[in-house]
Amino acid sequence: MSDKRQDYISWDEYFMGVAMLSAMRSKDPHTQVGACIVSDDHKILSMGYNGFPMGCSDDDFPWCREGEPYDNKYFYTTHSELNAILNYRGGSLEGATLYVSLFPCNECAKAIIQSGIRRIVYDQDKYEHTPAVMASKRMLRAAGVEFYKYEHTGREITISL
Ligand SMILES: O=c1ccn([C@H]2C[C@H](O)[C@@H](COP(=O)(O)O)O2)c(=O)[nH]1
Ligand SMILES: [Zn+2]
């Protein structure tokens, strides 16, 4: 008889958990997004979260949503998925799976498709009725990138740091 623990976390819980933990690094006061890219043999290849590019200070650039484009966050934020793709130093992401806490926008969808990622597991889809997300799904379907909603298990994880 095996003495193996039975309550260990599943692969999906593990990778979505890493994506959610990455999101906690985001300085965006409204929406924090985390991403984790995984190989088909369950190795974490890269991670990312939404934030400003290197050299663009979190304290100097704007985090607000309103106002002129020059004065709000949207021109300046690098999305979590793109950061995860760009953070990868190992070569090809062909065949990889992306775990992400928010459904990718159209710009991220283009980067996902072009990087060779073949599968997306996402959590929230709060912008599903926006043109950006509808266009994203249109491109992902056309390119044969599969996407699945993460199924919450109800497990709560507490980490004391
Ligand atoms: O594909 C996506 C879409 C959005 N994000 C980031 C970009 C922004 O920092 C927030 C969205 O801000 P709202 O205030 O909810 O409009 O999410 C991303 O990382 N990936
Ligand atoms: Zn995006």
Structural account:
- By secondary structure, the chain is of the alpha/beta class.
- It is 27% helix and 17% strand.
- Helix 3 runs parallel beside helix 4 (131-143).
- It is globular, with a radius of gyration of 17 Å.
- The protein binds the ligand O=c1ccn([C@H]2C[C@H](O)[C@@H](COP(=O)(O)O)O2)c(=O)[nH]1 and zinc ion (ZN).
- Zinc ion (ZN) is lined by residues 79, 81, 104-105, 107-108.
What profile does the largest beta sheet have?
Answer: 5 strands, mixed
Low-pLDDT runs of 5+ residues are none
Shape: globular
Average pLDDT reading: 97
Tell me the helix content. 25-40%
Q: Could you give a short description of this structure?
A:
By secondary structure, the chain is an alpha/beta fold. The protein has 4 helices and 5 strands.
